[in-house]
Amino acid sequence: MTSPLAAGDLDATERLRRAEADQPSSPVARFGADEPLLLDSGAVLAPWQIAYTTDGTLNADRSNAVLVCHALTGDQYVTTPNPVTGKPGWWTRMVGPGRPVDTDRFFVICANVLGGCLGTTGPASTDPQTGAPYALNLPMITIPDMVRAQAMLIDRLGIDTLFCVVGGSMGGMQVLEWAASYGPRVFSAVPIATGARHSSQNIAFHEVGRQAVMADPDWCGGRYLAEGRNPKKGLAVARMAAHITYMSDQSLHSKFGRNLQDRDKVTFGFEADFQIESYLRHQGMSFVDRFDANSYLYVTRAMDYFDIAARHGDVLARAFRHTRTRFCVVSFTSDWLFPTAESKAVVHALSAAGANVSFVEIDSPKGHDAFLLEEPEMFATVRGFLMGAARARGIPGPAEIAEAPALQRAGA
Amino acid sequence: MTSPLAAGDLDATERLRRAEADQPSSPVARFGADEPLLLDSGAVLAPWQIAYTTDGTLNADRSNAVLVCHALTGDQYVTTPNPVTGKPGWWTRMVGPGRPVDTDRFFVICANVLGGCLGTTGPASTDPQTGAPYALNLPMITIPDMVRAQAMLIDRLGIDTLFCVVGGSMGGMQVLEWAASYGPRVFSAVPIATGARHSSQNIAFHEVGRQAVMADPDWCGGRYLAEGRNPKKGLAVARMAAHITYMSDQSLHSKFGRNLQDRDKVTFGFEADFQIESYLRHQGMSFVDRFDANSYLYVTRAMDYFDIAARHGDVLARAFRHTRTRFCVVSFTSDWLFPTAESKAVVHALSAAGANVSFVEIDSPKGHDAFLLEEPEMFATVRGFLMGAARARGIPGPAEIAEAPALQRAGA
User: Fold this and answer.
1) Distance between CA B159 and CA B165 in Å, rounded?
2) Measured between beta carbons, which residues in chain A are less than 8 angstroms from residue B264?
3) How confident is the model at residue B402 (pLDDT cuts 50, 70, 90)?
């Protein structure tokens, strides 16, 4: 007898992930033909769906909702285990009881992005017109499209104004897009390790990744799901290249240096002699089962297209005119994917727009990925900012909640 | 009637290049079974050959020879057109009549590296044991192996001491290796945009490139030449990723920014909407015909393995003990592949060894590739350094040569 999960050419993780595309383990909001999503490309998506998780309790006046936006290969499982990998939520350092984004105080929402592969409509989702996966028939997605979808989810949840929108990297792009396009609905915003546009170098790295995927014959012109294949090699190469950009020269040096992997001397061959090679190969291989190759194409493209200023006469400040949102912009010294200069450009624009903005550049050797890692100064910054904003918004603190738990929690 | 060059699956450029592997257009020094090349791996290469070009005239006392070492994908055609691409020599800005490396004064030698594909023994060369291309049966090559081969060429040419060894990037690694292992034979050395070891980040980028090549089914486990195939897609992806590292964020931004390619607005698709994408695709595609995929694997590996200090008890200065070579070390501010810190480490080691060393960090936005580009300060630096060294070595200057041309030139 063969386990059903072991059957076929696909491994268990990949089969689990494919099932999540239409029927996620998380809650999902479905929108029918009467609630189409209008995309920047001019295309209209209907029906469509958005998968999300929530944590904490929405208060009586619905003022304590925090939207967490995930990065390129993230998902809605910010505090709960990912059903495909079984790994813990991806930002439990930042979000949870007593964490900077304190789920004892805030109601946290995190949605899988449009174009993703864990339950929100994306290229792996079934196209209702054909009954087969969309693949490249899905219209192109943009960051504003992702945010428009999130706004419809927030409406569905009956929330008018978000207390905060927070995210790093592509998540930060969504934060900025929320503030630019839905300013009155955003009380505070925390864009981390991000920028208001994707740089030429970043587009270049994404293009390398896409070409690596498309060069894999198992990509099948995008139709690999229908054909029972998976462009693992190409996607692994894409992930390896991208992963280098998430770290810093310094962190690679201190973590791996030129250390050899399980050997005393080089093999004079093409094995993974060096620890960094072994590490990268592992990063590539462990990625391909948990992520859809076409989603990788769509979501990288969305980032490439992102350029808030371009939609405002090339003047970024205009995007934030009359904003009343409070901003906390965070960057890291060793992040070369979204260097501090990109954050400063945002801060300057916000200042020019008269916004309430604080900016912290955190000294860290960990590169771009620092926002996902143990960075006490980042946690202290976000915690402090949210405490101040919560006071201004009149959201009771944990002590006040503790004094009157029944009253406060009954409202949700 | 079909042109022979148009026949078959291979295009003309690729066919030309394959022919060059055994029978280069340039001069070639062949070494028989009695002159084996001992490799760092312990393997012995015999017979073997090294292809090279010369420019200028060797003087009577054979004291004016300059060895130019090429970078990863370079070749021996430093001042003359590449027979495969038809393009001009790759460093005519630096080397030629009246140039910093003045061929009116110096006798310039440039050899294709061991493991290369334009006439020096490499994986595309015919294995005399089998009559088929070596492919992965070629023993692994190291930078010291490359230099050992060059030393045997210099012997063959009857030159005892090189007036100068000069090169950038991997060429600079060879310069340092010459100085470390053949110090008494090197009067002066100019390592540019390089380091005494390959960093973790650089190994990482090389590993991505190799995985991209090996992921291409046309690579055929390395046997593509015998099977009439070519892993073009994989090699193109490798080149694209590498090419990003040769430029700087700043140069990409000023050269391409987010400019669109031949269109007014994005296509909402995966075409090369952005100029940077079009440029990278072109870089990838134009590379694959002129370079052998297995050579790319071997030569990147040689760079990864390079670590002079490791052979000297992890103390770089020991490698240059008692050196009498004059050094001119050059780096570029925006080079993030071989950042100035790597050059400084070399300079510190040389200083600790009591060497005569000058160091110039050149302010340039052009990134690593600056050494191949129009960089007046680099030219002035190298020119000035070589003039001083030539005086010390007693090599007549152009004016002196002009006064007594018959005498000086008769000696060659």
Assistant:
1) 13
2) none
3) low
Give me the helices (H) in A121-225, please: 143-156, 170-181, 200-215
Bridge partners, A307 (sequence order): A197
> Is A207 in contact with B252 (Cβ distance < 8 A)?
no
Q: Which helix (H) or strand (E) holds B37?
A: strand B37-38
**Backbone dihedral region of B216: left (phi > 0), alpha (psi from -120 to 50 degrees) or beta?**
beta
Q: pLDDT band at residue B315, thresholds of 50, 70 and 90?
A: very high
- Of A356-370, B100-114, B394-408, the one with minimum mean pLDDT is B394-408
Place of tokens 């540019």: B192
A26 is catalytic: no
**Amino acid letter at A189?**
A
Residue A369 annotated as binding site = yes
Asked if A45 is an interface residue toward chain B (Cβ–Cβ < 8 A), one would say no
Q: In order of start, what are the domains of chain B with their CATH numbers?
A: 22-197+309-410 (3.40.50.1820)
Active-site choice (B248, B335, B343, B364): B335
- Tell me the three state secondary structure of residue B54: strand
pLDDT at A5 over 80: no
Q: Distance between alpha carbon B386 and the CA centroid of its chain, in Å? A: 20
CA-CA distance, A118 to A112, in Å (whole number)?
7
Interchain CB contact of A272 with B (< 8 Å): yes
Instruction: For chains A and B, count residue pairs whose Cβ atoms are closer than 8 Å.
Output: 158
Contacts of B376 (CB under 8 A, 6+ apart): none
The answer to whether ipTM exceeds 0.85 is yes
| Distance of alpha carbon B371 from alpha carbon B171, whole angstroms | 11
Q: What integer pLDDT is reported at residue A412 of this predicted model?
A: 36
CA angle A333, A336, A339 (to 5 degrees): 60
The pLDDT score that the predictor gives to residue A397 is: 79
